[in-house]
Amino acid sequence: MNLHAIVIAIIVLTLLTVSLGRLGKVKTKADYLVAGRSLPAFVLVFTLLSSWIGSGSLLGGAENAYKHGFVALWQAGGGWAGLLLIYFIAPRARKFAQFTIPDLLETRYNQTARVLGVIAILLTYTAITSYQFIGGGDILHLIFPDAISPIMGRYILAAFVIVFTAIAGMSSVAYMDLFIGLLATVTMCLALPVLVHRAGGWPAVHSALPASHFQLFGDLTPIQCLELFLPTCLLLLGNQSMYQKFFSAKSEKDATRAVIGWIIGTIILETVIVAIAVTGSALFPTGEVSRAPREILAYSGLHGFSDGSFALKLLGALLMGAIFAKIISTANNWLFSPATNLVNDIYVRYLRPDASNKKILIVSRLMVVLLGLWALFQSLGTESVLKKALYAYTIYSAALTPVILAAFFWKRATAAAAVASIAVGTVVTVAWDTITPHLPSIIGQRDAIFPALVVSLLCLFTVSFLTPPPTLEHLQPFAER
Predict the structure, then answer these.
(1) Residue range 248-294, pLDDT digits in tens
(2) Which of 35, 149, 171, 455 could form a Cys-Cys staple with 22, CB 3.0–4.6 A?
């Protein structure tokens, strides 16, 4: 237990050192929001990897794998499909080179689209940050079961994240992600074969679990698998945090190269995460973790190596530390991103357009603190990380991804259509659980992704064809070279 505590302490101090080390390089709005547009491909790969793989995979995906097996890869597979399309978007995004997604929405559509985009992003990103706090709190409780409750752990994790994020903005986030991404990738890839060996080898894992754990659809229906696949895919395609990383790249070439590394890293790491969770379900089919399966990765790190040599115990401590660090990293990214919206898209755009860099930095840090507290409040009322993740993914998938992709690839999309699409996608997702009891069961039993996405797309296409086409002024920033 002391070893785990020491590893966590070293990681926290390292992250704080990295963050403070970047503080002196932050002088302007561009330094804080997009790291001065200076990130090379190597740094971009790991900051993209770290920002994407967080509690949604480490808790929600792992819980799904513990219960249902490799069918959990349908959730990860949505991200992989999105990444293949992002390869073609990345250079266009870097060429556009603004600060936020609402910048893009106003340039391509209008101010109303910008404001509605900010609302959808705030709902999505603070929800995602909230369950990072849950994951970090769970880990601290596992390490210090008598001293730290899961709820107290959420408060402590929130404090870490708010401080780390507020210090140096994107520059701090990106270089912390470089350290975390390397640590997590190496540690998890080393831990998997050791856990499989301790379970008696892969044949023993296979025989200990239901056959459905190793089938394409498992014990889910194809529709349920698509309900895992689509929100993840569409969130990734429109993910503001990702676009901000592209806006932060040194060049269009760096952005494109980073996507290649990101694809490879994501496929490897998410497959390893699911495999560890499946192996953990064979090693620990009963007991405390069976009642809280979202904790299976951290639980495996704590108990799967505890009776081995010092080297194995150290690997277990590093596995838990890597998961903890990944959660901090993801929370940093998803908290920082909406803070930039409030600063760039509301404060600077409408309230103080002539604000100095010093004033903008002060307000930016204040927004990080306020949004962090809101995310903490949400975490206190959340029970299922997987359900919260799919809710957050669906808001973004239905409200923003269609209009973002249309901005780059469909010249006929109009401002009125974008406004209608964002508004309807957001409202249907947020209201879905309220209206489903009044709908036929064949519809009401479905997750919100299909109805929200369908009505959002209908609005986008129908209104576009019923209104005049956009002007050349709106299309020019998105034209190909």
Answers:
(1) 667 777 777 787 888 888 899 999 999 999 999 999 998 888 888 88
(2) 171
Task: Provide the token pair at 332.
Answer: 């940093």
Alpha helices, H only, 380-414:
385-399, 401-409
Query: pLDDT band at residue 478, thresholds of 50, 70 and 90?
Result: low
Q: What is the CATH number of domain 2-377?
A: 1.20.1730.10
Report, in angstroms and rounded to the nearest whole number, the Rg of the chain calculated over CA atoms: 22
Annotated domain spans of the chain: 2-377
Q: Name the DSSP letter for residue 39.
A: B
Distance, CA of 134 to chain centre: 14
State mean pLDDT over 341-346.
83
Q: Interior CA angle at 271 toward 395 and 211, to 5°?
A: 100
**pTM for this one?**
0.79
Tell me which residue of 429, 402, 408, 428 sits closest to 474, measured CA to CA: 408
Across 113-186, the runs of DSSP E, i.e. the strands, are none
Residue 352 three-state SS: coil
Is the pLDDT score of 245 beyond 80?
no
List strand residue ranges (DSSP E) for 328-434, in order: none
Beta carbons of 194 and 37 less than 8 angstroms apart: no
Assess contact for 152 and 137: CB atoms under 8 A: yes
